[in-house]
Fold tRNA N6-adenosine threonylcarbamoyltransferase.
Amino acid sequence: GLILGIESSCDETSAAVVRGGREALSNVIASQIAVHAPFGGVVPELASREHLRAIVPVVEQAMAGAGVAFDDLDAVAVTEGPGLPGALLVGVSYAKALALALGKPLIAVNHLEGHIHAVLLERVLQPAETQATPEHGQPKLALVVSGGHTHLYLAQETHHAWTYRNVGRTVDDAAGEAFDKVAKLLGLGYPGGPWVDALAPFGDARAVPFSFAQVKAKAHRRADPVALHPEEATYFSFSGIKTAVLRYVQTHDMEARIAARRQAMATMPDASPRRDLEAVRALCDQESLDLLASFQRAVVGDLVRKTFRAAERYDVAEILVSGGVAANRELRERFTAEAAAQGLPVAFPSLKLATDNAAMIAAAAWPKLITSEFAGETLTAAAGLKLGS
Ligand code: ATP
Ligand code: MG
Ligand code: FE
């Protein structure tokens, strides 16, 4: 079962060939970070234009990298949503045309389901999983923690068909959004999450005691417009801590230092945390590093606490943590430590598969190929698509 996956929901154009939902033969990712960085965030019009420019060469590279011909494919899978409408449309239109031309089935994938299935990629099959899938397996708890989402889902597989129930979400900012905003506030580059991750170990996480109130979702249980089960749903909130960071910056006269750093960062638009960590660390005073470390500690602590509490409530077999923020080292360490303490397994995608990529889209499409859940010719981009019930 060879599936070509295509992803274009945000600022990555990606194509991948995945065999059997598990083995990525190729996974080409064209990032637009350098295009959007000068604007400090994704510019939708530029994103669509860049996807249009990249889609054909990226698919060709993915096919060549996998060493397969278009005729060898069993299906073409594409991200249907959620995401930026114009960006999604590039991938959907291309995938529809390709599937039609090849006479192969087209599979529509929810981006969030893709993030969840990234965890299954590259994972060695457990003995229990090689047997026929159980009729009613114990559910898994999936935390999708990314630039646009901080959502908890109960994920259940029954005869290869996956179903999801949304049992938690953020009431305001997503965790990745908070990372990006706090990084920006402190004069660091876009996207900010990887910078915070890289710089936090140089700061003292106990320096700024953010209180639980700063990550508490107030009164949303009653007012929740989403049909979560109000008595048991989990709510995250990350806009309060962002405001607390802003207030700290103002009351500690950090603005001049931050402005200087922002100016220095602007001269290195394609700086990367891996290559340029020393240079950027040299731009950071200790107070900034302490603030970043404290922020990260508070956010990660909240994610760990609430996710494990939900895992206990639903008696799940395993926790899956995915999405861009799942690349965060402190998050992985804290989840892993808590999993060991509680005797409940936790799994992550590899670092490259945590952020947006097409291999996860092809992986999520695999069960749909088995169950013949194909998209029709009317498939269109669904910017506001939700996952599950
Ligand atoms: P969504 O999946 O919700 O539609 P998205 O596709 O933009 O949003 P991803 O690409 O999955 O999100 O993740 C990007 C987000 O992850 C950004 O907010 C980025 O800052 C954050 N991120 C990436 N790496 C790290 C890291 N190491 N530590 C913390 N945050 C990170
Ligand atoms: Mg992205
Ligand atoms: Fe994503």
